[in-house]
Design goal:
Blueprint (H helix, E strand, L loop, with lengths): L3 E5 L11 H10 L4 E2 L11 H12 L2 E10 L1 H12 L5 E8 L9 H4 L8 H5 L2 E9 L9 H12 L2 E5 L15 H19 L2
Parallel strand pairs: 1-2, 1-3, 3-4, 4-5, 5-6
Helix pairs in contact: 2-3
């Protein structure tokens, strides 16, 4: 099957906000269709409702399924992976600025009580990458400590970048070159298999 991606947007976000549409268009030109479900009540999110919506979009998973999550959407994807059936497997996961420790924002912290089970999530994806900014005020206690946690807990490849904040849709970062590079790298094996090179 051809690869496809599911994009989980942030708290207060929508699939049409900020850098998401440009990213979907660009990845589509690379041959990676991206589904970006509208997660319910983004200003006052309910974890169960977000996971149900993501489950409907992801389906049974598969090696051809790539997951991209930004901020609270990344946390929701980790919860989905951790709670999925034991034989569920996806090809790769990209986490952009996932807040994994209490932030003081009630709507976000609802997804962190308890936090995602990283050991369980790790068993259900072949590869994890994370893009973090060292200037992100929402990654508590510190982005570098979060990087170590994701590396140790998920085996994630960490991409630390300077001065990019929380990659908020309103930031004007459009689209994110790190996500494009990740998608290109993930697509190379399937493109090579298709062309026979």
């Amino acid at each position: 099957m051809s690869p496809r991606a599911v994009l989980a947007h942030c708290w207060t976000g929508t699939p049409e906000a900020g850098w998401y549409p440009a990213l979907r268009a660009e990845l589509g030109r690379l041959g990676l269709p991206v589904e970006a479900p509208r997660l319910p009540e983004p200003d006052a999110p309910d974890p169960a409702a977000w996971l149900a919506t993501l489950s409907a979009a992801i389906g049974d998973g598969g090696d051809d399924v790539l997951l991209i999550g930004h901020s609270l959407g990344a946390v929701a994807l980790l919860h989905w992976l951790a709670r999925a059936a034991a034989d569920t497997q996806v090809g790769a996961v990209l986490l952009v600025a996932p807040p994994m420790a209490v932030t003081g924002i009630a709507a976000v912290d609802r997804f962190l009580a308890p936090p995602p089970d990283l050991a369980a999530a790790r068993r259900r994806a072949a590869r994890f990458d994370a893009v973090l900014s060292v200037a992100d005020p929402y990654l508590k206690p510190d982005p570098r400590q979060l990087a170590r946690r994701l590396r140790d807990g998920l085996g994630a490849r960490i991409h630390l970048v300077p001065d990019r904040g929380h990659f908020a849709p309103s930031s004007g970062q459009d689209p994110l070159p790190e996500v494009r590079a990740w998608a290109t790298r993930e697509l190379l094996p399937s493109q090579t298999a298709t062309t026979g090179t």
